[in-house]
Amino acid sequence: MNKTDIKKYGLVKKFKDEHLTDKQKVGRIISRDNENYKIVTEYGILAAEVSNKIKYEAKTLSDYPVIGDFVIVEVENNLYNSIIIEILDRKNSLIRKGEWDMNYDHIVASNIDNVFICLSLNNDFNIQKLKAYISIALNCNAESVIILSECDSFSNIDNLLNEVMEYAKGIEVIVTSDMDSDSYKSVKNFIKEGKTAVFIGPEHDKSKIVNKILGGVHFENELVLVEGGGIIINTPEMRELGIESENITKKFVDTLY
């Protein structure tokens, strides 16, 4: 059997050196559908479920595996019956507030190197929306980048960029144009082998930029390898954002969509 090189999926040495039995492997969560997971290991992509121990000890949804997690999985000989027995330490996580309870954090993804904030310069653009996404990106404790797309349709781009830079707090800002495909190359420069990038923003703005990077390939809320190296996590549409530093109320958060 040809083994999968999961270093390309961001596996670091400290996880590789975990003491394992013959049936245990380190893997990374690439997708989740309720309690059904897909994990990449040296055996390739496996279907898995969480152990009863994890279920019993879980106090919140954040105690369950999420996309981007490194885990220890117990693999049977037939590779069809895999159990997640441990979630390894998360370097960081991207968090939103719970759907029904704003005091309940929900981890969207973990172990992230870059957060890309994707916003189009169309009629829906406003600076408050940008400030909200900046706050959630900074709380993730990863390198952040702002991507402003569709600049061709914006008449006063210089004044807008000055306003954006005022709130960017040192975050790099990339402006892309549908008329210039090369303008997306600077985004790709941040996506490197073994490094994980996550994209946040309104669904239309986010998916357009991700599709440009992946060459028009659509993918759901999952972790994928980028041709030429690097890892992308596409996030679900975030209607509620946990942004304590901005004291954003539910009414304010509703302006995001």
What does this structure look like?
The protein is 21% helix and 30% strand. The strands form three sheets. The protein has a six-stranded mixed beta sheet. A five-stranded mixed β-barrel has the order 1-2-3-5-4. Strands 6-7 form a two-stranded antiparallel sheet. The N and C termini lie far apart (47 Å). Strand 6 and strand 7 (105-110) form a beta hairpin. The chain folds into two domains: 6-87, Nucleic acid-binding proteins (OB fold (Dihydrolipoamide Acetyltransferase, E2P)); 93-256, Rossmann fold, CATH 3.40.50.300. The protein contains seven helices and 13 strands. The longest helix has 13 residues, at 127-139. The protein is of the alpha/beta class and 257 residues long. The protein has helices at 13-16, 52-57, 127-139, 157-168, 185-188, 203-213, 250-253, and strands at 24-33, 36-41, 44-50, 70-75, 82-87, 93-97, 105-110, 114-120, 143-149, 172-175, 196-200, 223-225, 231-234. Helix 3 packs parallel to helix 4.
Write the SSE topology:
Elements: H1 13-16, E1 24-33, E2 36-41, E3 44-50, H2 52-57, E4 70-75, E5 82-87, E6 93-97, E7 105-110, E8 114-120, H3 127-139, E9 143-149, H4 157-168, E10 172-175, H5 185-188, E11 196-200, H6 203-213, E12 223-225, E13 231-234, H7 250-253
Parallel strand pairs: 3-5, 8-9, 8-11, 9-10, 11-13
Antiparallel strand pairs: 1-2, 1-4, 2-3, 4-5, 6-7, 12-13
Helix pairs in contact: 3-4
